[in-house]
C-alpha cells in the first residue's frame, strides 16, 4: 500500500484552494468584466505631483448605484493630499506637522467619494461629479467612468522617487469587489478637445477590481413569481426568499403598506421593505400573457417594495432558451449576452431613459412593466415542464429566488 508524501498532500491542498478561489473571483455571466482604476500622473510639482484618477466600469451589466462608490488606498510613504477636484476626501486626518498652509487630507489611508452634479464648476474636472453613480458598459457607455484630480505632496517629484499606493479598495452599495495591486503600465494618451493634439501622462498605474458573488449579500435581494393566462394558479415568491421577519442574521425591518407614515428616507442602502411572506426589496413577476399559433408573449412586472431606495438605471438579466427567437421588446431596451456560449439564451433588459429607467421607491409608482414577443419555434417550443418560464433572473446583477419547479403553473 502506497502513501502520498507530505509535499504531495500540501500541493493538492493548495491546488484545491486555488481552484475554489478562481470560481468565486469573477462574475459567472461575464467572467472577463472588471472595474479598472487608472492613476495618471500628469504633472510634477515642487513637492510631488498632480494625478487624474479614473474609475472605468468594463462590466456589461453590473453598475454602481446610489449612494455611490468609495475609493480608498494606503500611501507608501508620508504622502498628503494638498488639493482635490471632482471628488472629496471623507476625513482630513492629523495635519499638526504642517504650519501655515494645511493639506486637504493627511490620513495615511484616505477615502475619496464622488461629488454631486450640482457641484460648482470651479471644483469640477472632466468626467466627474455624478453622485458616485457609474453605469455599465452596455447600458450607458458615456457614463461608464468617473474621474477626480489629486495634488499629492511629500511624494518626490520624479518617476524614480514616486511610490505606488497600496491596499486599494473599491466599496460600493453591497460589497463584492476585490482590487489587485497597482501596476505600472504604458502611459495613457489624451486627445485635446479640438482633436488636434495628443498629450501623454508622465506615469500611469492600473488597478484591476473584480466582482465576486462570494462577497455579496448574505441574503438574496429579489424573488420571482410565475403565472399564466390560462391558469388561475400562481407560483408565488417562495416564503422567506430574502429573509424572515424574526430577529436573525438575515432579518429585515418591514412596514405595513397601509401605514400612514413610513420612517426613513430614500437612497439608504439598508432595505426597509413592505411586510410580505418573502421579505424581498424587489419582486419580479413573469406572466405568460398569450400563446398564439406562431408567437407567444410574456409580460414582466418589476415591483419595488423598498421604501429606502430608488433604483437608478435598473436592469434585468434573463436566461431562457428561446431568446434566439425574440421578435420584439416593449417598454425596455435589449442586448444579448453571449460571452459564455455561442447560443443566445441570455438577455439584458433595462429601462428607457426618462421613461422608466428609475424604479421608484415602494408606493404607487414603484412598478415598471415590459413585454417580450417571441416567435414560436415548433421544434423547440413546449408547454411542458416549465419550459415557458425563465431558468434564471438577475436584478442589478443579484440572482433572484425562483419558485420550485413543481410549483410552476401548467401551460396549455
Automatic annotation (TrEMBL):
Domain named COBRA C-terminal: residues: 221-409
Q: Where, per UniProt, does this protein localize?
A: Cell membrane
- Keyword check for Acetylation: no
UniProt topology in membrane? Lipid-anchor; GPI-anchor
> What is the similarity comment for this entry?
Belongs to the COBRA family.
- A GO CC term? plasma membrane
Superkingdom in the source lineage: Eukaryota
| Signal sequence extent | 1-25
This chain belongs to which protein, by name? Answer: COBRA-like protein
- What biological processes does GO assign it? cellulose microfibril organization; plant-type cell wall cellulose biosynthetic process
**Keywords on this record?**
Glycoprotein, GPI-anchor, Lipoprotein, Membrane, Signal
Q: What is its main location?
A: membrane
Q: Name one Pfam family in it.
A: COBRA
Amino acid at each position: 500500500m502506497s502513501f502520498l508524501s507530505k509535499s504531495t498532500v500540501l500541493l493538492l491542498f493548495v491546488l484545491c484552494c486555488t481552484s475554489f478561489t478562481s470560481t468565486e473571483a469573477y462574475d459567472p455571466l461575464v467572467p472577463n468584466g472588471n472595474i479598472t482604476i487608472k492613476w495618471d500622473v500628469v504633472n510634477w510639482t515642487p513637492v510631488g505631483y498632480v494625478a487624474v484618477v479614473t474609475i472605468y466600469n468594463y462590466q456589461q451589466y453590473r453598475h454602481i448605484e446610489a449612494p455611490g462608490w468609495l475609493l480608498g488606498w494606503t500611501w507608501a510613504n508620508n504622502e498628503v493630499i494638498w488639493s482635490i477636484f471632482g471628488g472629496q476626501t471623507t476625513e482630513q486626518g492629523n495635519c499638526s506637522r504642517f504650519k501655515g498652509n494645511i493639506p486637504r487630507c493627511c490620513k495615511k489611508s484616505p477615502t475619496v467619494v464622488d461629488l454631486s452634479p450640482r457641484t460648482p464648476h470651479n471644483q469640477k474636472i472632466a468626467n466627474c461629479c455624478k453622485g458616485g453613480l457609474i453605469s455599465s458598459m452596455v447600458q450607458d457607455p458615456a457614463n461608464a467612468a468617473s474621474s477626480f484630480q489629486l495634488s499629492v505632496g511629500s511624494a518626490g517629484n520624479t518617476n524614480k522617487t514616486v511610490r505606488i499606493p497600496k491596499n486599494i479598495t473599491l466599496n460600493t452599495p453591497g460589497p463584492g469587489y476585490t482590487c489587485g495591486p497597482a501596476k505600472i503600465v504604458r502611459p495613457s494618451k489624451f486627445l485635446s478637445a479640438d482633436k488636434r493634439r495628443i498629450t501623454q501622462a508622465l506615469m500611469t498605474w492600473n488597478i484591476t477590481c473584480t466582482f465576486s458573488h462570494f462577497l455579496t449579500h448574505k441574503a438574496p435581494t429579489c424573488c420571482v413569481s410565475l403565472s399564466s393566462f390560462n391558469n388561475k394558479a400562481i407560483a408565488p415568491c417562495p416564503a422567506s426568499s430574502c429573509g424572515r421577519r424574526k430577529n436573525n442574521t438575515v432579518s429585515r425591518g418591514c412596514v405595513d403598506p397601509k401605514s400612514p407614515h413610513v420612517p426613513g428616507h430614500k437612497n439608504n442602502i439598508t432595505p426597509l421593505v413592505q411586510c410580505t411572506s418573502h421579505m424581498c426589496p424587489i419582486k419580479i413577476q413573469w406572466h405568460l400573457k398569450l400563446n398564439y399559433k406562431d408567437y407567444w408573449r410574456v409580460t414582466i412586472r418589476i415591483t419595488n417594495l423598498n421604501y429606502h431606495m430608488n433604483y437608478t438605471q435598473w436592469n434585468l438579466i434573463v436566461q431562457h432558451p428561446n431568446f434566439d427567437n425574440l421578435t420584439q421588446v416593449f417598454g425596455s431596451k435589449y442586448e444579448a449576452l453571449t460571452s459564455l456560449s455561442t447560443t443566445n439564451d441570455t438577455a439584458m433588459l433595462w429601462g428607457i431613459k426618462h421613461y422608466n429607467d428609475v424604479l421608484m421607491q415602494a408606493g404607487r409608482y414603484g412598478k415598471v412593466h415590459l413585454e417580450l414577443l417571441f416567435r414560436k419555434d415548433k421544434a423547440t417550443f413546449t408547454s411542458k415542464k416549465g419550459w415557458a418560464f425563465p431558468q434564471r433572473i438577475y436584478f442589478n446583477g443579484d440572482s433572484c429566488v425562483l419558485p420550485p419547479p413543481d410549483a410552476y403553473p401548467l401551460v396549455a
